[in-house]
Specification:
Distance between the termini: 27 Å
Structural class: alpha/beta
Strand content: 15-25%
Helix content: 10-25%
Length: 321
């Protein structure tokens, strides 16, 4: 029996087919020979320029995706919490946008499907998948053993915590120890606020302030703000030397204010892999989505999308974990 994944068609290239027409041919006998005929020169017209055809774009498509693999025929239904700028958020017209939404749209297009986005809170996405309300979940979900026990996941982005600084990094922040004795902004209740005080889920034993104390340096002065925009305003006003936030958010902040903000290069903490989640045992759908995303990585579309939203530092090279 053919494996389900082998039913996924590969990449199609456009081909030009020249068709020749055949018909009855009448043979005319040659004219009677005339000695020493006067040659007649007929000018040869210049050929008309031929337009070079534009090749059709390469497209991945599903030749035969079983009906039970999709919630709605002809549609890729996506569950996402559209409150997570820049990966998924609502634009000024109330439409879902962001890097994850653009990736989902690209996957749908390459599978020959329409895209439908269901706004679903993060803690409800797995339940929505189990209930058959969506085909995939894409919403900055970290791949963990606990998640993999419930769903299949396709890796698509690396994300962590990093620092936004004023343009040119005037205080010379290179390592976390350079933050000791200085003021750093965070948003209230964020993972970064917790990390400063040693309660990060990835580094539970120590926090950044504990590292300062261990190096016999004064601790970081933590300044908490209710919104990212307030923390960034404090940064540009010189009230803090850095804004500690998630790397996708940090990248988007810099893309949005390139003349005022920079990232501290190479300083990403608690990096983890985010994944697209699917209900277990939907092997055809899993293979189709993975191949579509990999084709976007291979042809550069994926990186263009990430760069548009400032999250290219988290790019992955493969959809195989």
């Amino acid at each position: 029996m053919t494996s389900p994944k082998l039913r996924i068609a590969g990449l199609l290239a456009a081909a030009a087919i020249a068709v020749g027409a055949c018909g009855n041919t009448t043979v005319t006998p040659p004219p009677t020979h005339t000695p020493n005929p006067t040659p007649v020169v007929t000018p040869t017209p210049s050929p008309a320029p031929t337009a070079t055809p534009t090749p059709a774009p390469t497209q991945l498509f599903v030749a035969s995706l079983p009906a039970d693999q999709l919630v709605a025929a002809g549609t890729l239904t996506v569950c996402s919490d559209v409150t997570n700028t820049p990966q998924e958020f609502l634009d000024s017209s109330g439409n879902p946008t962001g890097s994850d939404m653009d990736l989902a749209a690209g996957i749908a297009t390459r599978l020959g499907l329409k895209l439908s986005v269901q706004n679903t809170t993060s803690d409800k996405i797995l339940a929505a998948l189990a209930a058959g309300q969506c085909d995939i979940g894409i919403s900055a979900q970290i791949i963990t053993p606990a998640e993999l026990a419930k769903v299949d996941m396709i890796p698509y982005l690396q994300a962590g915590q990093t620092f936004v600084v004023a343009k040119g990094n005037p205080t010379g922040i290179k390592t976390t120890y350079d933050l000791c004795k200085k003021a750093v902004g965070v948003t209230k209740g964020s993972p970064e606020a917790n990390h400063l005080n040693g309660v990060s889920p990835y580094t539970p034993a120590r926090g950044l302030n504990a590292n300062c104390q261990g190096a016999h340096l004064n601790p970081i002065t933590v300044r908490t703000y209710s919104k990212d925009s307030d923390a960034l305003a404090a940064l540009t006003a010189g009230k803090v030397v850095a804004f500690f936030t998630g790397s996708p958010i940090a990248g988007y902040d810099v893309v949005s204010q390139p003349d005022q903000l920079d990232l501290v290069p190479g300083l990403v903490l608690d990096s983890a892999t985010e994944g697209i989640s699917l209900t277990k045992n939907k092997n055809d759908l899993y293979a189709a989505v993975r191949l579509a995303l990999q084709s976007m990585i291979d042809d550069g579309t994926y990186l263009k999308i990430l760069t548009k939203y400032g999250v290219e530092a988290g790019a992955v090279a493969s959809t195989i974990s």
